[in-house]
Amino acid sequence: MDTAGDQGKKYKRSDNAIPDFEHLFDEEPPPSHGKPRKKGVGRLYYKRLFSRNKGSVFLSLFMFVLKNLPVWVMPIITANIIDIAGAGMTEDTVRLLIINSVVLVVVLVQNIPTHVIYSRISDKMLRRIGAGMRGTLIRKLQHLSITYHKQIETGKLQSKFLKDIESVDALNINLLKVLIPNIIVALVSIGISVYNSRLVTVFFLVIIPVNVLVTQFFSKRMRKKNHQYRVENEAVSARFTNMLGMLPVTKAHGLENEEIAECDKNIRELTRKGLAVDKTNSYFGSALWVTTNLLNGACLVFCAVFALNGFISPGDIVLYQSMFASISGAVQTIVNVLPTFSVGFEAIGSLSEILVSKDVEDSAGKKKLSSVEGNVVFDHVSYKYPNGTSFVVEDFSLDVKKGECIAVVGASGSGKSTLMNLIIGFLKPTSGTLTIDGDDITTLSLSDYRHFISVVPQNSLLFSGTIRENIVYGLEKVDNDAVERAAEMANLNEFVKDLPNGLDTFIGEQGGLLSGGQKQRVTIARALIRDPKILILDEATSALDNISEYQVQKAISGLIKGRTTFIVAHRLSTIRDADRIVVMEAGRCVEVGSYEELMQKKGKFFELKNLNDMNYKIAEESLGEGAE
Q1: Residue 535 burial by Cβ neighbours in a 10 Å radius (0-12, 13-18, 19+)
Q2: pTM of structure
Q3: pLDDT class for 309, splitting at 50, 70, 90?
């Protein structure tokens, strides 16, 4: 069986090909979710992201200029051929036609290799940036504390990961393949026009900014509408996630219509805000199209007047009309894509709400453990939540030797789960110290430390896959004998032997094809195979019926041998064999002792035990009457 220490050594990333962009977001956090953030935050972060890849950007743009030469050269050659034909046959006519034809062929043919190289450079860079954004977000979410995850809805996180990163991808593509290339097209076309006629160029530069004015008129409104739509979309995503989680409750209470009505209300609001975005974009696109075509017509008339007055040749009409169309088209493309930039910058600002968070578990410079004995000491530990007004655990002291079994009992809200979260490292003591084998837990690399502990929670956490995959989750190269041994110790064979594929049976999403007791025993097998030195059982049988609880209890009895164990129990008779029982009340330890000692003392534990037994008796009688 692979030990936790072995697994800790194995878990090292040998080749991190995906870039990490988290350092680019070293900035004060924007305002909380749903509220307008500081203007320009998205642009600030994107500027940093862009500068990270400036070498590839410049190389790809150089290749773009080469591949795009036909766009600028063909109008020049067309104008030359028209002028040659207009001048009549001379001794230079054939030579000039051949030269122009050869230049045209060369310029066109070179487009093939240069376009392939341009695409390879730009596409590879865009894919890496997209992968980097996704990888960075995943790493950040893994490093953020449990407290942070409890404060943000899963649906909002899903929306950020899927929709916002998709918007950033669109922003990257439009920047590299639309915005900057079209700026280059416009600048080169202006340069060609200046070289041939400064007067015509002045006309261009006077009327083209009209496009920019139209864009400025709409941009602020588009930014506001996109922000509102993004926030509402996150709210709908969160609502959908909650709806899926509440489906059993909804159907059990006949609340389907009420739930549908509430979701319809959210969807209608999302649709309304989406239509507002569409309406603004529609007005913008239409106004821009009309403006552009009016300007094209003005250019044609202007060049015709110049040709009639002998300022330019007839061929130059084609050249300038092509250059103006190129400049105007580039400007129109640029302003058309600006709504995408507004959405993209809004998405980056949205992602920054996660990426700038400082509520992380930082193991940098912390002590890395190669082994754990299991000695745990609480020394006057107190804890209250960051925004809390009172302590949920106060002045708690306890010296636990390796191999001891400690049960923690108390009413709901007495601080039991908080103590477990402190041991796991999810929470840090507000005051006092918690040491593991003599080391302050705040000085340890929590990632390494957690390779030596296992947690069996109240609600079994399983994923869609096989029983075997759930048992070996996160471990590498686990031999079949170790899996079989863990399954046997967890009393899985009692039901696995009847399954069609044994341990390789698919158990559905969140283990939905198994009963509560079966799921809990899979969770116990997952804990066993890690051979933990510290074991935490957080009300591991509270959601089970009597038969399932008995079976799980048998599995637990094999699990705790030789390990430092902390048990949070709801049925107090099940902790009779614990070395010591800690009784919690309002965050304080009010009693400590063995089962017999506390029962003889007839204090708080005695009261809890009698009340507990009475509640179970009433519950069993109620179930019996219901069955009759």
Answers
A1: buried
A2: 0.63
A3: confident
